Amino acid sequence: MANRKEILLKIKKTVSELDPEARIILFGSRARGDHGKESDWDLLRLTSIPATEENKKNLRYRLLDIELETEQAISTLIHHHDHWEKYSLTPLYNVIEEEGIEV
Question: From CA 35, how far away is CA 58, in angstroms rounded?
Fold first, then answer.
């Protein structure tokens, strides 16, 4: 099974192929270090391209290959970086800002 660094490098490479300017932020139990064996990888992708359903679907299909290869579940949120700040009053935004680790 791939280790944390290998999985994050695969994710970063895959996302960068679709959107070279994207920021990827790991959050949740994997970022905090209190994950279990079955914990998923929670990721926020802040994109410079439109966060259309087609673009989201394309990323999901590409990440599915990593999930199958590593036997690890990957959960993604995708937002355009210009719009992310409008979520600043939400608990999720605050959690990601506090515990998120940029990949």
Answer: 27
Q: Taking the chain (103 residues) in consecutive chunks of 10 residues, what is each chunk's mean pLDDT?
A: 89 94 96 94 92 86 94 93 91 96 96
For the range 67-75, what are the long-range contacts, defined as Cβ-Cβ under 8 Å and sequence gap of 24 or more? 69/2, 69/10, 70/1, 70/2, 70/6, 70/7, 70/10, 71/1, 72/1, 72/2, 72/7, 72/40, 72/41, 73/40, 73/41, 74/11, 74/40, 74/41, 74/43, 75/40, 75/41, 75/42, 75/43
Q: Quick one: CATH architecture of 4-33+41-102? A: 2-Layer Sandwich (3.30)
Q: Taking the mean position of all CA atoms in its chain, how far away is CA 86? A: 19
